[in-house]
Fold these 2 entries.
Entry 1:
Amino acid sequence: MKTMRLLCVLLMCCSLSMTSRAQDDLSNMFKDSTTGHQPVTGTFKSTRIIMGHSNETLKKHELDFRVAHRFGDAGGEFGGGKTAFGLDNSSDIRIAFEYGISDNLMVGISRAKGSGDLTQIFEGLAKYRILKQTTDDHMPFSLSVFGNVTVSSMTSSDDLTAASHFDEFTDRMTYVGQAIIARKFGNWLSLTLSPTYVHRNRVGYMDMNNMFALGGSGRIKLSKRLAFIAEYYVPFRDQTSKDYYKSLGVKFFNPLGAGLEIETGGHVFSVNFTNSTAILENQFIPETRSSWLQGQFRWGFNISRRFSLFGKKDWKK
Amino acid sequence: MKKQIILFTVLLLGVLHAFGQDVYSCRNANLSFFSSAPLEDIEAKTDKGVAAINAKTGAIYFKVPVNTFQFKKKLMQEHFNENYLETEKYPWAEFKGKLSGPIDCTKNGTYDVTVDGNMTIHGVQKAYTEKGTVTVNNGQLTATCKFNVKLEDHKIKIPTLVIKNIAEVVEVTVNATYIAAATAAK
């Protein structure tokens, strides 16, 4: 009897609340709905940060035409007013066509002037997105892997001990393998960590064929279309190699770059300063011999223009 | 005792009634928009909208996760989310409103209706009054509505550089098929 009365009261409350819920505010029906495991977009604006790769890949059927340029030393012996702070010299130039085969896989070919032991370099590259950070942190970070192969087309040196003396064709080749771990923290900050492996088939005496390096980079968005970017690599060169080169008066430095990135629709411009003279990982990681502190840093820019090809066809499916 | 059992039954029915019959819901509402500018036509669509309608009171509701809109050009989609709609900050677009009158869900037919309510896009709310149709077909409701959204009204800024690529007024089309909420809940 008592329970019945209690039940009636309960039901009455229920009925009232449900009526009001159903009739006045339909939004409550979807209160629990979420956007799901949506991938985070735009961790970086471009597939590159300054010298190295970001976790981003091109989307399916996108063509990216890239031009990168590094000028001569801004200061020091070769810089200063007489070379317009390095603008009269170019230490490295790279022109590339890169293409998205799927939303997660991109490939590319490029030609770089090259700066270091080897010059006149052709490059083939591929990058694959393995993991995507999600907005609900179901996946807290993104992971991409990048690899490339380069071939130098320069004339073989007569000096048998030089890195640019080629006995066989494979002596002209170098490789890079890299994992890029990235996370976007809110809308304004993105960071990456990139364990990298560089292999050069032929190197100078006491240099290293295999070298590991750790890269770190970041972006701070200053506005929707302008960002500050910075990048740093630590190559792990062993002590005996360092000591040998030191005895020859050669010192290696860690590549450090900083710049501004501007996005205007399909273009991304990055204007930067780096101490490394080379653009490709194969060279700037093991062969950077110029130091910020001695004025051996330079202007550089990366221009990326993205085209969407076959867009209509994909979409109609 | 008998009286109480009757009361209990009536109340129970009341609860079921309130929960079920008048409210219709949809979990795959189609939304699309179209922007026509001198240099470029831009179109995007999603089927991830959710919607509900109360046929008795005329209350209607729409909600869509903005980052589910699919574009022809993926780079455009990225810019849409990153630069224009800022979906990380404002993940949903929402509409709360009322139909001009009740709909008789027992009778098949097409009703021309006027919808009155508030829409929130890009975190900015604005009142809209739009015309649409509701079709009743054997207990299933289909609502369609086409209306214009002025980007400026929702504080979506277009830089001068792309003024010829993006229209200032975008046409939005909504299409939802509802089933009775009690059935949907099952």
Entry 2:
Amino acid sequence: MATLCKNCSHALVFNPATQLLECSACGSMFRPEEVEAESKEYREDLKAEAAGEVYGDKEDKSLMDCYVYTCSECGGEIIVNGTEASTTCVYCGNPNVVFSRISRQKRPEFIMPFSVSKERAIELARNAVKKGVFVPREIKNFSVDCCRGIYLPYWIVKAKYADSVVIKGQVKSGKNSVTKYFGRSGTLDFDNLPIDASKALSDESSAKLEPYNLFKMKPFDEDYLSGFYSNVSDVTYSDVRSAALLRAQEFFNEEAINDVKNASAKEVISSCPSIKVDPDMVYAMLPAWFITFNYKGKHNTILVNGDSGKVVCGLPWKKVLFYCLLIGVGIALTVAAYFVFKATLPVFFSGSRSSSSSRSEGRIIALLIAGIVALFSTGIRKVIKVIKSINLTQDKEMFNFMKKRQG
Amino acid sequence: MLELVSFLFAIGVGFGTSCWIFGTLLNKSNNIGDSKGAKYEYNTNVNITSRSDRMSKSESESYIHYHAVKFDDSYEPKGTDLVRRLTDEEREEYKKMAAQTPPKGLYVSEKSRINTPLADTEAEFEEWEKSLESDAKMTGVFLPQSQPEQEKRDIRD
């Protein structure tokens, strides 16, 4: 069911550039607050029915998460999944909102309307991908396969966190450094932490869309959904607690490590976190653009924050160039380091030394070995971490979340 | 022998540095928007209530036991329930329960926890001996795995 134009009864669509509901037929524009929607009570009764029941085959597992909703404009049957709240009719192209999924207790309290238009989102994405050294030329001028604006469900969480951590660090002791342990205990309070409420979208990806300027949220009105897709919440309290605990732990560990002075190579080695999440959470819908393009037969997704315009994506990279440069520079640095070590190491391995100087030289060698191993493992870990992060937004689940919708 | 050692060290330094440089370049080039919201955006307030510096390994093993706090979540919704908006009655009920159940420490230490200053070596040694004796009696969530043996204290710098 869509909100209709008062002048010509065509479906209205929300335009982020003007922040108004616009009629594409007669050009009329209305503010969402001004549009007096006819009573929506009867529309709340128009439910999406399980596809298995509609098509008479309850045993067909392929229909399990499919629901059938009737388009209010043309009467066509729209297929939606278990959590979609708004979509576009594949027959007439008009927006449709599944009111039964956002009514009464399931109704979001707030919505942040899109302020970045589709064209602007694509422009921002193009500007972001142009700069990379390892980005293939075909991607720098990618052609958009599909671009959809989706309202993502979020729970805005207030929580109290307590933790007690032990931090290991290196402290200078004369010429050497010794390992010491530092304890920090305390509490952390936060409110207004947005936690993604959709199981289909990974928390890692949705967290990268932050920050959202929550002051721009408005009281929820279905009219803002017009022309966009949306999902409703399907997470449990356990999911929200786990996500909030992880974020709180990151913040607390950072503070605790910064609180320890005069030590280096600090890391948290043990902790005992506890969190209490206020179950009175605020339910809101926040905007994001999902832009996909095809590269070598694989779908890639670029996310754009629909409020701030922040671009999030992990782009395919020129593997051959990367590894050739890495190995080439590695060999050059190895050769240089070899001559340096060959000149300096004989100083430590000559036989005629007193026992005390041998001991200190032994310590220096041990520190050198530890430093080299640490440098090597840090370098390898950095490359692995970056590759994993890049692959996150190339994940098929992300693509399916965006693509498997009508219209 | 010397050449072999130099070669091994050089490989570690050369390829380690190269991986670090190109990992950073790849991150800047192809991993766009890899950041999350900062603490201040969520009105985050961190309050460190206890500090212990330069502990030995044995002290660090019991630190968490003495200072950790666990919240009572027995009155909160079940983890398997879908998150939903609370009704007014549920909200009032939750506020009452939350006020009645403050967080509990795993083990309440007799000493003050706030900004514990470093005592001199003798006083610390005496406290440490007392804590060993009380370890044997307490029934906390995290029990020490074994009675720590008497060992010479490290001379502090």
